[in-house]
């Protein structure tokens, strides 16, 4: 199709009509011009195709499909190839169901553990989120199916999500909240980007020209189209001007008429409308011209892929020698989720799974496994009879495995959690079982971090997150050692909710939410504050052990325009094969701006047989060392030393090397009478010129203590003097000086140090 030619043949009303949906899931068609509508559908971890009765909260039914693990789970895999493979499978399913675009992935940052939609987001870390989203998008789009990277931007809570304003400073926006979108857009080129409901610094995301056009298109080169989250449009004409092409769902003609009226009145340039139509048609034609007629996919094959994905994503949080289990031992399975697992979240991503395999079903052939329900999920009510039954079953077994987690009602799209606790009935059950059975393992089904008051009372904890429809079989694989766990936490588990940096102001005041914690989200905050956590970012255990050695870099000194190659050797020192996630963090040792202790800048997952050694290599460019400088509106590296840190988690650093990075960009500096001596000291040549000013102030302190004959005391006074003078402005040479500096001399010095060299 010649998109420009077809657009030129459309009437004004037809063009306006193409900028909103035909119904809840389809875009409009224009039969006379051969323009076909396409279907979009919810994801991101499974296809939610609603043949009839559309909704965005998972209320109405959808066609049977495969539910893969949620984003919170697959992020814990730290495995780019695995995520890409899952994306390819989703692409095949979309082709089979004639869905052109799947709505995902979600890369909103996990600012707080209580966001009701955290299960659908990847991480608290922008680098990890960007990397995994990139491979998810590449996987789906390799099948000529589009993705919709969401929710752009700063949608980090469900509370008042359609009206609240996320108020964020520029540096925080760039380093934390824009970064995962930036990486995915530049590296994977999603066909569409979905705007969020909320405002960004007072301007609705749907009509924000700075984010939708200046940043997304002009800076990052995005060439697809922007679609609204369902019902996110506030002012349709302003949204079109800002860069939002497609409004979903149907506006029932209301906003189409507003677009037509705006063009006719001259308040909207028709060229903007033409551009929007061309962008929409260009993207849809990618699908229409590459459809695979009557293609199918093997649901059972994808069911087994879902099993593999979650088995590689589970995180072994604790293991006091209890796992893996022995299949010949008497084992008690306790908890409703063993029989009916919670494997996906509530809301728009809710998949109608064609089958679900529970842990109990997966062990049907093992006769020495007994089961007790333990609790119910209909309400959080302690049932003494169920607990008593579970205690008796646990006493008779060698090991008790408790399947616990959050019920559907505790976390969902549309509302946030008010706490981080498991249901009281489950906490009570775990405590009662652990009191009578020393060999207790807890298996968790939850979309986000939870508190664990019983963490020291059990021997093992296996975190599944929401593991998809085949989570039961995968859980058995890991519990009995057929699969060695290799997942790592993509978020920090704090000891309690109050430790979270956003705790005091997460919900905001009415429709204003201030991101006062700035760049200190997740481990960036906990590490800087040296706070104890339940489990740190990147944490995860294995059934084998790994040793790290021989950390080396391609150079000890580089310029910020260079690429630094980092290599480290990793050896499997245990007795079974296993996968290790090698994590690389970078820390600026001394900075003039407030920065985290360290930040994740690389990761690789490797498979090692017993005794095998592999060399893992990373390439670090400028962004690995940079912070966003708001004065120059660009990423900047300060000259100085940086620690290259190799870790098993953000708290378990096993190798360290220091390199020097030299900046090739000189920041513009203008000195005034109010510049401090400390600021001038950053430039030794400027400080040399300002030495008379320093001496004038220092002399005042020296004269007052001239008769002091104690050398030790004199040294202390000199150090105190230096500390005080450093933070004084240059004008102190006149205000507090010895009288040797005049205003004329001050001006001459300023003119000299401000003169370009």
Care to give the gist of this entry?
By secondary structure, this protein is α/β, with parallel strands linked by helices.
Structural account:
- There is one protein chain.
- The protein has 757 residues and is α/β, with parallel strands linked by helices.
- It folds into four domains: 3-288, Alpha-Beta Barrel (TIM Barrel); 310-535, Rossmann fold; 546-662, Sandwich (Immunoglobulin-like); 677-754, no CATH class.
- The chain contains 24 helices and 29 strands.
- A hairpin with a 4-residue loop joins β26 (627-629) and β27 (634-636).
- The chain is globular and about 95 Å long.
- It starts with a helix and ends with a helix.
Oligomeric form: single chain
CATH class of the largest domain: Alpha Beta
What is the CATH superfamily label of the largest domain? Glycoside hydrolase, family 3, N-terminal domain
What is the mean predicted local confidence, pLDDT?
A: 96
Q: Biggest sheet, open or closed, and with what strands and sense?
A: 6 strands, mixed
Number of domains: 4
Strand content: 15-25%
* Widest β-sheet, arrangement of strands: 10-16-15-14-11-13
Euclidean distance between termini CA atoms: 58 Å
CATH topology of the largest domain, anyone? TIM Barrel
The CATH architecture designation of the largest domain is Alpha-Beta Barrel
How many individual helices? 24
Radius of gyration: 30 Å
């Amino acid at each position: 199709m010649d998109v420009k030619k077809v657009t030129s043949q459309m009437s004004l009303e037809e063009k306006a009509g193409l900028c909103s949906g035909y119904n809840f899931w389809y875009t409009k068609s224009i039969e006379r011009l051969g323009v076909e509508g396409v279907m979009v559908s919810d994801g991101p971890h499974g296809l939610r195709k609603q043949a009839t009765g559309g909704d965005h909260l998972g209320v109405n039914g959808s066609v049977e499909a495969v539910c893969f693990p949620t984003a919170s789970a697959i992020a814990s895999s730290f495995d780019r190839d695995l995520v890409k493979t899952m994306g390819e499978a989703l692409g095949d399913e979309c082709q089979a169901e004639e869905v052109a675009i799947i709505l995902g992935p979600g890369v909103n940052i996990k600012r707080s553990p209580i966001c009701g939609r955290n299960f659908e987001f990847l991480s608290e870390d922008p680098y990890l989120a960007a990397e995994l989203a990139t491979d998810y998008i590449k996987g789906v789009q390799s099948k000529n199916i589009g993705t919709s990277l969401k929710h752009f931007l700063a949608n980090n809570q469900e509370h008042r999500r359609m009206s609240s304003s996320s108020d964020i400073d520029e540096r925080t926006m760039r380093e934390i909240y824009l970064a995962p979108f930036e990486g995915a857009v530049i590296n994977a080129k999603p066909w569409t980007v979905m705007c969020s409901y909320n405002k960004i610094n007072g301007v609705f995301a749907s009509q924000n020209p700075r984010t939708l056009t200046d940043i997304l298109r002009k800076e990052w080169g995005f060439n697809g189209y922007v679609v609204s989250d369902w019902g996110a449009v506030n002012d349709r004409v302003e949204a079109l001007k800002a860069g939002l092409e497609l409004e979903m769902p149907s506006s029932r003609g209301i906003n189409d008429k507003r677009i037509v009226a705006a063009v006719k009145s001259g308040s909207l340039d028709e060229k903007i409308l033409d551009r929007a139509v061309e962008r929409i048609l260009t993207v849809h034609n990618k699908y229409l011209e590459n459809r695979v007629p009557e293609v199918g996919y093997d649901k059972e094959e994808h069911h087994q892929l879902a099993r593999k994905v979650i088995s590689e994503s589970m995180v072994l949080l604790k293991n006091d020698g209890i796992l893996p289990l022995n299949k010949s031992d008497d084992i008690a399975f306790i908890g409703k989720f063993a029989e009916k697992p919670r494997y996906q979240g509530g809301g728009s991503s809710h998949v109608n799974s064609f089958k679900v395999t529970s842990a109990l079903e997966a062990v049907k052939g093992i006769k020495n496994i007994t089961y007790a329900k333990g609790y119910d999920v209909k309400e959080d009510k302690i049932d003494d009879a169920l607990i008593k039954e579970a205690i008796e079953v646990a006493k008779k077994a060698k090991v008790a495995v408790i399947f616990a987690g959050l019920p559907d009602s505790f976390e969902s799209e549309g509302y946030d959690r008010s706490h981080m606790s498991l249901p009281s009935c489950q906490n009570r059950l775990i405590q009662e079982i652990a009191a009578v059975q020393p060999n207790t393992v807890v298996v968790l089904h939850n979309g986000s971090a939870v508190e664990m008051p019983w963490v020291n009372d059990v021997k093992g904890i296996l975190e599944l997150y929401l593991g998809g429809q085949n989570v039961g079989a995968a859980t058995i694989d890991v519990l009995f050692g057929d699969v060695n766990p290799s997942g790592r936490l993509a978020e920090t588990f704090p000891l309690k909710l109050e430790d979270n940096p956003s705790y005091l102001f997460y919900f905001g005041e009415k429709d204003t939410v201030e991101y006062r914690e700035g760049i200190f989200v997740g481990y960036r905050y906990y590490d800087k504050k040296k706070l104890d956590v339940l489990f740190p970012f990147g944490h995860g255990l294995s059934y084998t052990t790994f040793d790290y050695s021989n950390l080396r870099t391609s150079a000890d000194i580089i310029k910020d325009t260079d690429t630094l190659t980092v290599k480290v050797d990793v050896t499997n020192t245990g007795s079974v094969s296993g996968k290790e996630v090698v994590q690389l963090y970078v820390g600026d040792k001394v900075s003039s701006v407030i920065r985290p202790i360290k930040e994740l800048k690389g990761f690789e997952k490797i498979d090692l047989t017993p005794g095998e050694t592999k060399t893992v290599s990373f390439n670090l460019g400028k962004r690995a060392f940079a912070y966003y400088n708001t004065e120059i509106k660009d990423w900047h590296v300060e000259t100085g030393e940086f620690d290259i840190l190799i870790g098993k988690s953000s708290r378990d650093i096993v190798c360290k090397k220091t390199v020097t990075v030299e900046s090739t960009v000189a920041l513009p500096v203008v000195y005034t009478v109010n510049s401090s001596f400390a600021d001038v000291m950053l430039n030794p040549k400027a400080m040399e010129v300002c030495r008379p000013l320093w001496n004038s102030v220092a002399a005042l302190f020296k004269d007052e203590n001239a008769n002091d004959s104690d050398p030790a005391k004199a040294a202390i006074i000199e150090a105190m003097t230096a500390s005080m003078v450093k933070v004084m402005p240059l004008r102190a040479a006149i205000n507090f000086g010895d009288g040797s500096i005049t205003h004329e001399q001050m001006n001459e010095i300023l003119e000299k140090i401000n003169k370009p060299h």
